[in-house]
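Usage

Read records sequentially. Each one opens with the input sequence:
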Amino acid sequence: MKIMKQMIDESNIEEIKEQLKKLLDIEYALDKSSIIAITDQTGTINYVNDLFCELSQYSREELMGQNHRILNSGYHSKQFFKDMWKCIGEGNIWSGEIKNKRKDGSLYWVHATIVPFLNEKGKPYQYISIRTDITKEKELEEQVIQSNEKYRLIAENTVNLITLIRENGNIEYASPSFQNVLHYDLKELEQGNLFDLIHHDDLPFLQKDLDFFLEKGQQSLDCEFRLRTIKGNYIFVEAVISKTKHTDGSFKDLILVVMKDITGKKEVEKKIFHLAYHDALTDFPNRRSFMNQLRNELINRHKSKYKMSILSIDLDNFKSINDQVGHDVGDIVLKRAAENIQKAIRPIDIAGRMGGDEFIVMLNKVKDIQETEAIVKRILSNFNEAINIEGQDYFVTCSIGVANYPEHGDSPEELIKNADNALAHVKSGSKNDFLIFNKTIENQSIERRLLESAMRTAIKENQFYLEYQPKVNLQTNKIIGMEALVRWHHPDLGTISPGKFIPLAEETGLIVPLGEWILKESCKQTKKWHDIGYTDITVSVNVSVRQLEDPLFIDKVKNVLMETKLNPEWLEIEVTESILADVENIVKILREIRQLGIQISLDDFGTGYSSLSYIKNLPIDILKIDQSFVKDIHQNEESSAIVQAILKIADSIGLQVIAEGIELQDHVLKLSKDGCRFGQGYFFSRPLKVDAFEQFMDRLLVTI
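and closes with the structure output:
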């Protein structure tokens, strides 16, 4: 009997241990997943778990001994709580939703289950409440309630084309806008297939993207395609495609397609594409366009057995025509010069205008040097004839420098540089001739080597200094900041043009130490101005791609800010559209810069169409309209159209715009009328040294 009793007791102990383990497991799971509180019969809190503290923002010490009224949001009526207490006071379990208030005053919803524990007399001696955070569900529920009527109004009145389709394209629903915009009968349309309305050239790409989208389970797909109207013509649409669920007895996948008519936008982009990619005067490709085409051609060079030549062309004594008879006649001469070049080259060749009276030609698929020389001589011959303008003859010749691929370079920059070197030798001689680049020319580029050596010395000996050009609010005339511009005064050679030493610094890599000095000096000066009362001004510093590629660039920026104690919000990093050549890598660096609190501006915007494709994805804050569009904005409709389009694009994606090169009151008036708020240029001030800039700020403060 003793042995049997011992076995029973041991069995009970093991069973009790097992039950206790299960209870502890349940307690652990409950504690980790639910918000738990224990109160006595009066409602005084005796226990709360970590989730309760986390959600309410109160510490355990702040909650212990308190009543649940500490969480009262005031949302529920007294009767609500009276009924709840009546229920649990009678020993019944209460379940419901309660809106509470956190320590910081914010509100949240919980679903609560309150369980009373009864004593031997059947009266509650404590309560355990188990809560679940349902704030998001309640917010969604409220949104759904408020949106039901809105959805109906939106569907009936939106200009967007909204449709629900099957994976095979069959239409389940089409919004009334299909009738308003495309003039389709909705009943007939809902018996058709969306893919039948899409342009046959666009459909394969859309179906490929759609298949990938459905397979990968992405949240949404953004795409563009052309959609046919009832009349048979097409509109461009921007579509957002997403998956949804529909029940008609069983759940089946449906695809929601929301389309926006962007035909007008496409037409504007097409116009901007041409205007921004071509020189307005000659209709030749501009510098950016030509460089892109040359770069693409060189990428594919290995596939071709033919040679290629670059011609750098400059008009002789063109400046005298502008000076003697004015720019109007000069513009006509430039147009005729472009015609002379175009008539001499072949359809497969590309001629571009680099600026001023400088042209460039890419001769594609030349068999040998003799073919190149024949084309060059035709160009020279065409310039031998007088250019007649309103009965007056003007004689303009040209000089040409030639560089051949691959003998004289295998990159666009090297080929153009060597063609320019050859051109420089022609211009320094008799002109009206041509010269093919050779090693002798390269060896004679002493000035470049001397200048590079002088630059290295100048950086060590602090021969550089900064000037600042103010940026102004066009409406208030208030100064908002300044652009820091580097200058070089050589002790023997005097002032050296930035146009000479900046490109050389880029080529040699000296732009990295020079750029670091510019950044540090401009931040230090801006902090000084802030400290003496010139507050609310931002300094913008030009940064090249070469600097951004420096792996230590971000650390250098941080060190400069730390050393100068300038708040990052008063620094603006200015980059040019050349960043788009390596946009994927540069964007990462720009994001890091913005994370420091620094603003980023894109300089010379509008001179390259590629920016329109990338601009919405670039981490930038400010666009700077290139001065080439500002100089004749008050007279030239094309320039005005480009500026208005840029302002509209910037406004749609939340970017500021600054116009460069403002020189006339007419520029200010036209830009202000078009909605441009900020600008800089000689109309306000040339770049100024520190003392002169302070005087400028003082004068501006007096006049405001």
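Summary fields computed downstream for this record:
- The mean pLDDT is 86.
- DSSP finds 26 helices and 26 strands in the chain.
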